[in-house]
Amino acid sequence: MPTHAKPAPGRLRIVGGTLRGSRLEVPDAPGLRPTPDRVRETLFNWLAPTIAGAHCLDLFAGTGALGIEALSRGAAQVDFVETDAQLATLLRGNLERLKQTAPVHRSNALQFLSGADSRYDIVFLDPPFTAGVWTAVADTLEAHNRLQPGALIYVESPAGEIPAMPANWILHREGVAGAVRYSLYRRAEPSVKL
Q1: Average pLDDT, consecutive stretches of 10 residues, N- to C-terminus, the chain (194 residues)
Q2: CA-CA-CA-CA dihedral for 137, 139, 144, 147, to nearest 10
C-alpha cells in the first residue's frame, strides 16, 4: 500500500503564491519554532485582501517562512529582522536561491524598531516563546510609530498565554493549533488625550 512521504525533517515549504512548493531549510537552533504549514495557510487566507502591495516586517524572522510567504503572495516589500548570525545567513541564502530581493537586518528586534524609519502595513511578531517579549515589542512598535493606520499584526504565542497588547490593537481573528495560539490584530488609531 503506497504511503505519502512527509517533508524531510529540517525543511518546510511555502504553501501559496508564486513560490508555492519551494522548500526552506530549517536548522536545529535554540528557540527556533517555524510556523506550521497549516497555520501559515490560515493566516494568509486572513491576509488575502490586504497582502498585495503591502510593506511587511518579519521580526524574529528565523527561517523567514512568514516573510517569504508574504513575498510569494504579492507583498511589495518585506524587512526581515533576525539576531542570530547563522539564521540570518541561511535566510539570505534562501532569498537569493528563490530570487527574492529583501533586506535581512541582523539586529535585536527592539533595537531595530528604535532605529528604523519605515512604517508597515503588516507585522509578523513570532518571537521565541521563552523570550517573553510580546508586550515590549508591541509597545515599541507603537512608541516609535512603525505601524500604518489600520496595520495588521500577527502574533504567535503559547496556547495558554494571551500576551498584553496595546489598547488600540483590536483582535481580528485567532486560532489554536496544538501548543500554539495564533492571532491577528488590527491597529486602530490611538485615542487623542485632551
Answers
A1: 39 85 76 76 94 96 93 97 92 93 94 92 92 92 94 94 93 92 90 49
A2: 80
Query: What is the distance between the alpha carbons of residues 175 and 194, in angstroms, rounded to a whole number?
Result: 37
The CATH superfamily holding the domain 39-187 is: Vaccinia Virus protein VP39 (3.40.50.150)
d(CA 87, CA 187): 30
Break the chain into its structural domains and give their ranges: 39-187
Q: Say which residues have a Cβ less than 8 Å from residue 172's Cβ, sequence separation at least 6.
A: 46, 152, 184, 185, 186
The Cα–Cα gap between 161 and 192 comes to 30
Give the pLDDT confidence of 59-76 residue by residue, as tens digits. Answer: 999 889 999 999 999 999
**What's this model's pTM, rounded to 2 decimal places?**
0.88
